[in-house]
């Protein structure tokens, strides 16, 4: 499955270039007349300046309508407590960041109560797919390629696996990572408890303990510990879980009803989920389009020095792509890239 690509060349009209890309890649071939079409995006955490620019989404909405579809914008609520933890705050954030060009329907309900549990493959046996995603006729997945402290990078596979699942599904994926506290190092200072938004760690007999099933392995306690007593175990399992969840999400769609567009611009250290995304780690690359999440993520990694992410986060970025391919998601880990010129 080939990937089509236009470079991020600001001497040219990038709106026109994007449309040439969509035409070459057949981005809207997944849309049939009357389809309810989910335009899956990340609206950006409030305060984060790096996410896909709204005018590109506006144009994608226009193209879906021209193809006969009924487009709506969507994303799932976050598990962590921030500005997109419930539908009300999520919608306000979407509008504040400029995403008001189509109805914004939160994918998993007011408090993440709307989901469908489906069977999947790989490290997970089942996954909670956000209800609106599961009910959509077609989907255009619009991703922003960037770094991620747990999975190395976030692209289309992460956008499917994490972004299209409910809080329960997000927690299920994160819990594939283990957490250990070295009591010989722990001083019982309580900094981990202070840092945890859910107040999960306990201090028992002068030592920290965290056995709560609600812990999502968010790094805050690790970063707060002055004794370096907390660490993750089997961190790479999240990459496998993302692929497993992505497989489950795609199982709710008929064949050839999902397409992918990825923007490799403002490639930051951290995810769009945080107000402070960190430094930009790579030069702007361009826009990719494909009918495969494996191929489009593989294409991005092929064109950049992704070892920068590997070294920064001690996880192999390519693992989630390889795992998705191994589970049976169509595409190529090392795809042919067709440049539109």
Summarize it:
The protein is an alpha/beta fold and 341 residues long. The protein is built from twelve helices and 17 strands.
What does this structure look like?
By secondary structure, the chain is of the alpha/beta class. The chain folds into two domains: 3-173 and 236-339, LarA, N-terminal domain (Rossmann fold, 3-Layer(aba) Sandwich); 178-233, 2-Layer Sandwich (Alpha-Beta Plaits), CATH 3.30.70. 31% of the residues lie in helices and 21% in strands. The chain contains twelve helices and 17 strands. The strands form six sheets. Strands 3-2-6-13-16-1-17 form a seven-stranded mixed β-sheet, sandwiched between helices. Strands 4-5 form a two-stranded antiparallel ribbon. Helix 2 links the parallel strand 2 and strand 3 (70-74). Helix 9 (237-250) crosses helix 12 (318-327). It starts with a strand and ends with a strand. The model has no long low-confidence stretch (mean pLDDT 96).
Structural class: alpha/beta
How much strand content do the residues show?
15-25%
The CATH architecture name of the largest domain reads 3-Layer(aba) Sandwich
The fourth-level CATH homologous superfamily of the largest domain is LarA, N-terminal domain
Helix % is 25-40%
Shape: globular
Strand order of the largest sheet: 3-2-6-13-16-1-17
The average pLDDT value, as a whole number, equals 96
Spell out the helices and strands N to C: EHEHEHEEHEEEHHEHEEHEHEEEEHHHE
Largest sheet: number of strands, sense, barrel closure: 7 strands, mixed
Low-confidence stretches: none
CATH class of the largest domain: Alpha Beta
